[in-house]
Amino acid sequence: MGARWPDCPLIGHELRCERDRWVRFHSLPESKRYPDTEDEWTIVLDRYNTVLDELFTGLDVYVATSDWSDTPVPPERPHEQTRWHPDAHHWTSIRTDPDPDDPICTHVYVSRIP
Hints:
By secondary structure, the protein is an alpha+beta fold.
């Protein structure tokens, strides 16, 4: 990533420093990254909740979600996002597209929940 987007900080290690455990799951068949249907969303949510219950029962966890815009300052979050991640606060923004004429910024929001 550094060679393609030299102005973007590599921040994955910042997420890992909070705890001694770091996990990423592929939750759909064939490592499909994003659900397209309500059935796939149900599968993802069920699998995530099962894993989280097994790993973190009785502990708080950090939840990170993201949104995208064409400005480095995060816009007001859409109602849908505030509904499913209500206590999230802006953590950081990263420019994720090197095109100076058409910037894309990823805005990361976090919360700590049981």
